[in-house]
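Hi C.,

You asked whether I'd gotten around to modeling the 260-residue construct. I have! Everything is below, sequence then structure, no commentary in between.
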Amino acid sequence: VYTLVALSFSLVMGILSILNLAIGELFMLGGFIGFTVIAANFPLPVALLAGMAAGALTAIVIGKIACEPLRDAPPITPLLSTLGFSIILQNVVTNIWGSDPLQLPSELFDDRLTLGSLNVGVMQLAVIGVTIVLVGALAWLIQSTSAGRALRAVAENREVARLLGVSVGRMMMHAFAISGALAGAAGVLVCLHYAAITPYVGVDTGLKAIAVMVIGGTANVWGALLAGPLIGIAAVLTVAYGGSQLRDFVVYGLMILILL
């Protein structure tokens, strides 16, 4: 999940040089949409597609209003604009679903697989499987399609790409849509994994995803892909052997170390 959200940050950062601070709230929005769909007795694939669609459409709106008009502004301007959108999204969700944590029936996710001494929840395997599929689809899109080549051209040199006939504005919206879809999918997976969701879940996950992005290389999509599991494993081992109070210290300590 850290990988998916960090890829959302890295994609926009690498192609547009914009740190979209609303991605944490896109993650949260996807979780609430997935929660609502599952609560209505629809299957996981429908919830996942709904969360991704909500994330992508909202990201396009953010791109159109908060970033595209500010393409040539100093980097701090679109950053503050996306921060404003993140606050708006959090308040919209709070007004629709309320501020209290929402809980799904735990029996929905009780299925487990036992292989010898290993006992794994089916939902845990679903999270890993969906993440692998989405990352593979992103790799194929970036490396093997004309849209992916255009995105890489804009990331390399925006002005030269424009001279060669690439629509920079359209590529901006593509980047925002893909990043929103990834964040929305991650939100659905976390909601279903914990069978619960709260309007404030995006803040902590978004900050950790920024740490993952920094550790992997700020605009490096493949670095984020490697750093996500690394941070996840480091956090889990820290909780297991040192206590939960040290988890954030390890995650952000690694980020500071990389920056230094």
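If it helps when you're writing up: The mean pLDDT is 88.

Thanks,
B.
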